[in-house]
Amino acid sequence: MKILLIGRPIDNADLIDSYSTMQSYYLSKSLRKFGIDTIYYDWPRDRLNSNPNLFSDYKRQLFEFVKLNQPDHILALGVNFFGHLDRSLGLELSLTFPGIVAQIHDTSLLDGAPCDLNLTILDATNNYSDNVNHRLERHLACNCIIGFAVDHSLFCPRHRKKDNILRVFVDHQTFFPGNGFGEDYTFTVVANLMRLKKHLLQSPMQDTGFDGIDVRTLTASGIESIDLDKPLFKMYNRESVPVHVLAEELGNSDFFIVTHAESIGMCCLEAASSGCSVIAPHSCIKRELVNLLKIYEIGKQGVIPFDQWKYLLVSNNSDINRLRTLKYSWDNMAVNIINSFINARKRDNSHPYPLKLTA
User: Fold this and answer.
1) N or C: which end of the chain has fewer CB within 10 A?
2) What is residue 103's three-state secondary structure?
3) What are the residues whose beta carbons fall under 8 Å from the beta carbon of 75, sequence distance 6 or more?
4) Cα distance between the two ends of the chain
5) Torsions phi, psi of 228, nearest 5?
6) What predicted TM-score, i.e. pTM, was given to this entire model?
7) CA–CA distance from 315 to each of 38, 41, 205, 288 (Å)?
């Protein structure tokens, strides 16, 4: 089987700066491991974003590349690639290319994806169990679940320091404040940690073993400590912290705290694989992942009661946190993708929900 991957080739983990490049690095390795021939057609995001007039050239060159290299199937990397870039591209590819054209998305699009197949990270099947408006049938006919994936050799528990300091890693602030992507809860998270520190100093919890706290986070200058007495909030730029540095930090942390809504929640999976217990503001993480990782959700009032903190500290178990993630590997995702291509049908006129050449 020969698969054309639409995306930027990544051959060094230190170049991973997004979920798209993470897929490119890990999926290509796993697909080749199982005997799949992979070729790339790069998507020059920066050039297309700065000059939309280049899109027609990009589109023409992609079709020429497909004709020349004759892959069996096409997979667009990223999240909802065709939906975000241009629906007409996925539609035309699917209607003219004989193999399966697929994209990866966080969840089901029913029959609305502009390609033959929508590969989903989350399992949305239970959302459509009532089958109102044939939603379950549309979901099953046009979507396949490939699941989460994490590099367990990279994101793993490290040799934690033998002291009484509670180590907490706080996620960066949202990249999209005020743009309809949900609230940023950094202030709420830090306020809870300030209260916890005060309580630890005034009344050390002998039965938890902690009498101090060290809080770290991502900034544009790298990973820095947060001074809970005089907190200073800095933005992060996605580029200043290599993935192996982040993995080392998570592997030495006891807790990971989310600060904003996550479409997929890869950071939570990586943190749990590293041995962290995960805390998140209410409704920031998809329910499937909350249940899988046993994520503690901060209530709508935004306060973690101290008796709840005590329970979280006593029950924290890095080994159990890691074991919950073991079935989610890039090899497993690659196998699911291969099987999806084998079993999928073209959304032509014989398909129960055929594509139509409309944007």
Assistant:
1) C
2) strand
3) 3, 4, 5, 6, 102, 103, 104, 119, 337
4) 30
5) -70, -15
6) 0.88
7) 44, 48, 14, 21
Strand 222-225 and strand 212-219: the pairing is antiparallel
pLDDT for res 359: 47
Which runs of consecutive H residues, i.e. helices, occur in 18-54? 19-33, 45-50
φ, ψ dihedrals at 278, nearest 5°:
-110, 135
Angstrom distance (rounded) from CA 209 to CA 246: 26
Q: In Å, what is the CA distance from 6 to each residue of 76, 296, 337?
A: 5, 37, 15
The string of pLDDT tens digits covering residues 181-231 is 568 899 999 999 999 998 887 776 666 778 889 999 998 888 999 999 998
Beta bridge partners of 281: 298
* C-alpha span between 195 and 215 (Å, rounded): 13
Strand order in the sheet with 165-170: 222-225, 212-219, 165-170, 255-257, 277-281, 296-298
Give me the chain's average pLDDT, please. Answer: 89
The answer to whether the beta carbons of residues 25 and 7 sit under 8 Å apart is no
Question: For residue range 80-118, what is the model confidence (pLDDT) as tens digits?
Answer: 999 988 899 999 999 999 999 999 999 999 999 999 999
Query: In this structure, are residues 333 and 146 in contact, taking their beta carbons and an 8 Å threshold?
Result: yes
Question: Among 258, 316, 328, 257, which residue's Cα sits nearest to residue 292?
Answer: 328
**Host H or E run for residue 200:** helix 186-202
Pairing mode, strands 143-145 and 165-170 = unpaired
134, burial (CB in 10 Å: exposed 0-12, middle 13-18, buried 19+): middle
**Which DSSP category does 347 fall into?**
-
Q: What is the pLDDT of residue 205?
A: 60
pLDDT over threshold 90, residue 26 = yes
| Strand locations in 92-211 (E) | 101-105, 117-120, 143-145, 165-170
Q: List Cβ neighbours of 313 (8 Å cut-off, separation of 6 or more).
A: 166, 205, 208, 210
Residue given tokens 């697929």 in the structure block = 102
